[in-house]
Fold:
Amino acid sequence: MSESASPRGAAVGRRIGIGLMYGLWRPRVLGAWRVPATGPVILAVNHAHNIDGPMLMGTAPRPVHFLIKKEAFVGPLDPFLRGIGQLKVDRAGADRTAISKALGVLSEGGVLGIFPEGTRGEGDFASLRAGLAYFAVRSGAPIVPVAVLGSADRRGRLIAGLPPLRGRVDVVFGEAFDAGDGSGRRTRKALDEATVRIQGQLTAHLANARRLTGR
Structure:
């Protein structure tokens, strides 16, 4: 595997995220204890705003390596994102380098962060890509659903594209679950079935998180 993601870099990224998130906003973190303290785990995060990734980096109890679209790796952001252990992915096709690095994170017992909808949208897990199921079934790592609520709030913004400064953003971690059926199968049918199971779990967690937070 070429140029593996840096665990030390992700730890630095977490410290930067903590300072940024708690300095500019008021994150309320619920259920972080549900993230396994050791071993590989996948955080599946809804995606409604650009700040969702940094928000997770600063509120998750462990350093996170996110799969991030290659378009974000421009100018000085390229070496910075690489330096803090984030993974560049080309969403136009099967990016074998990104897949290899992501599986490497999990094989080394790290935390992989994925926006399973593939791009920013309504943040409701309505349309999942198969990548999350592939990583979960291939690695055997449990999935922890995460709901970020309030990051897309447009009221009171001082800076376009960012949530209101000092505004509250809720980050709700759900129960870890296994995506596979226990057979270890990695066929297209098995991945499709896993995707259906994952979508059900993520959608249920999001609904519960909204009830819990009143968002």
